[in-house]
Design a protein that fits this description.
single chain, 106 residues, mainly alpha, 67% helix, globular
Length: 106
């Protein structure tokens, strides 16, 4: 389930970059950067999301879908290499997928 939470959060942020402000992303990066296992990352993500009800509410369906996996099957435990790759993907999305800037001129 830890893998699914990390994957679901990564996908959620890719699809909805406006969900987290720059300061929220910076806070999250700081919390996650020293963590190494998917269990640690997943727990930190869940704790962080609890502070932001809008994000938390959207993460629950994403996580449920990720847990079921393709065709409703449960995914297997990740290898150490896959854990490292998933962490890198998550940090890249948080760091690089900034919310769109408001381009309206006043």
């Amino acid at each position: 389930m830890y893998k699914e939470t990390v994957v679901a959060f990564t996908q959620l942020l890719q699809q909805h970059p406006q969900l987290a402000s720059k300061s929220q992303r910076d806070d999250l990066l700081q919390r996650l950067s020293s963590l190494t296992t998917l269990k640690e990352l997943s727990n930190a993500l869940v704790n962080w999301c609890e502070k932001y009800p809008g994000i938390d509410k959207l993460l629950v369906p994403e996580t449920t879908e990720a847990i079921r996996g393709p065709g409703g099957t449960t995914s297997s435990e990740p290898s150490p290499e896959e854990e490292k790759k998933l962490k890198e993907e998550l940090l890249n999305v948080i760091n690089n997928n900034e919310p769109p800037k408001d381009t309206k001129k006043t």
